[in-house]
Amino acid sequence: MAEQSREIYTQHLSIPNLSDAAKEVLHRQLMSKYYMIMGEGSVFLLLMIIGIAQVRKAFRRESEFLARQKTFLHSVTHEFKSPVASLRLQIETLLKRNLSTEQQQLALGNALEDTDRLDQLLEKILVAARIDNGEVPIYTERLNLSESLKNGVNKLLRTYPHRDIIEHIEEGVYAQMDPWAFNSVVNNLVENALIYSPKDKPVEVSLKKEGNKTVLLVHDQGPGIPMDERKKIFQKFYRMSTSTGYKGTGLGLYLVEYFVKKHNGTIIVKENTPSGSIFEVTLETI
Ligand code: ADP
User: Fold this and answer.
1) Which of 234, 237, 222, 240 is nearest to 260 (CA)?
2) Ligand 1 center to 171 CA (angstroms)
3) 205 C-alpha to center of ligand 1: Å?
4) Contact 163, 199 (CB under 8 A)
5) Which CA distances in Å does 244 have to 35, 163, 196, 199, 264?
6) 54, CA 20 to 30 Å: which among 35, 146, 159, 168?
7) If we measure between CA atoms, which residue out of 158, 140, 255, 268 comes closest to residue 216?
8) Rounded distance from Cα 192 to ligand 1 centre (Å)
C-alpha cells in the first residue's frame, strides 16, 4: 500500500505544470498514509509482543507448578512413610508379651501421636483438593478467638512439650468465624514457627483488638523469610529451597491464606528482630 502510494505520488510529480501547492498537498497525503501504516504496524507489533509475553508467563507458571507438584509427591511420600514406620514399630513392641503396663502405655501413646500426624497430613491434602473443587463449606459463628487460640496453643504444646510458646492473648476477643478454619490457621502458623526456628528459641503468639480489627501475630526467631519469597510461600505446594531439611507439604500456608481471605481478612509476613518472621493476620472484630 505504501509502495502504491509512493508510485502514484511519483507519477503525479511527473505531470507537467503541477504547481508547488499541489505537490505539497500530494506530499502531505503520502506522509499521512505512511504514518497511518506505521501506527497500525506498531500497534500490531506491540499486541504481538504482549501476547507472546503472556504465553511465556503462563507457560513458566505452569512449569513451576508442575515442578512444585513433583516435589510435593516426593516429600508427601516421605511424610507418610515415617509415621507408618513408627506405628509399625509401636505395634511390634506391643506384641511382645513381657511388657510392663508403663511400657504398654508409652507405646500406645506414641502410636496415637503417629495416627494424629497421619490424620493431619491427610486432612491437609483433602482440604486442598476440596478447595480446588470449590467444595469447602464455611460455617461461621460468633467465635471466642481468645479461647480457641489458647486451646490451639495447648494442643501444640502437647505435641512439642519441650518448646516454649509465650502467649499475649487479650481476653474476650470475638470474630464471626468458622471454628475449624480458625483452628487450622492457628495450627499451621504456630507449628511452622516451631518447625522453622531453633529448638531453644521461644515462639510468641499474640491476639489483640485494634479498633474494629483483631490482630493475630505469630513471631519466631528462625532464619526469617526473604522479601522475594513472602508472596510465593502462600502458593500451593510452594516450599523454600532452604526448607528441604524439614518435613512438609507446602500446603499449610496455602490453606491459611484461603481461610483468612474467606473471612475477609488479610495475612502478611514481616521481619522479626533480631531475626525471624512475624505472620500477621487481621480479621474483623465483632
Ligand atoms: P510446609 O511447612 O509444609 O512446607 P507451608 O505452606 O506451611 O508448607 O510453608 C511453605 C514454606 O514457607 C515452608 O516450606 C517454608 O519454606 C516457609 N515457611 C513457612 N513458615 C515459615 C517460618 N515461620 N519461618 C521460615 N520459613 C517458613
Assistant:
1) 234
2) 29
3) 17
4) yes
5) 58, 22, 11, 18, 32
6) 35
7) 268
8) 6
In 3D, which of 104, 143, 111, 108 has the Cα closest to residue 265? 143
pTM recorded for the entire structure:
0.77
Q: Which of 156, 196, 230 to mutate to test the pocket of ligand 1 (most atoms within 8 A of CB)?
A: 196
C-alpha cell at 168: 499475649
In sequence order, the β-bridge partners of residue 143 are 175
Residue with cell 508403663: 102
Task: Determine if ligand 1 sits within 6 Å of the CB of residue 203.
Answer: no
Q: DSSP labels for 132-166?
A: HTT------EEEEHHHHHHHHHHHHHHHSTT--EE
**What's the residue count for the chain?**
286
Quote the pLDDT of residue 23: 80
Digit-coded pLDDT (tens) for 103-150: 999 999 999 988 988 998 899 999 999 998 888 889 999 999 999 999
pLDDT of 186 = 98
Q: How many CB atoms lie within 10 A of CB 166?
A: 11
Degrees to nearest 5, angle at CA 64 with 256 and 226: 55
Question: In the prediction, which pLDDT does 2 show?
Answer: 58
Cell of 42: 506498531
Helix (H/G/I), strand (E/B), else coil: 206: strand
End-to-end CA distance of the chain: 69
Atom 11 of ligand 1: nearest residue by CA position: 239
Q: Which residues pair with 213 in a beta bridge?
A: 210, 284
Q: Which of 167, 168, 176, 166 is nearest to 145 (CA)?
A: 176
Question: Closest Cα to residue 120, out of 259, 262, 249?
Answer: 249
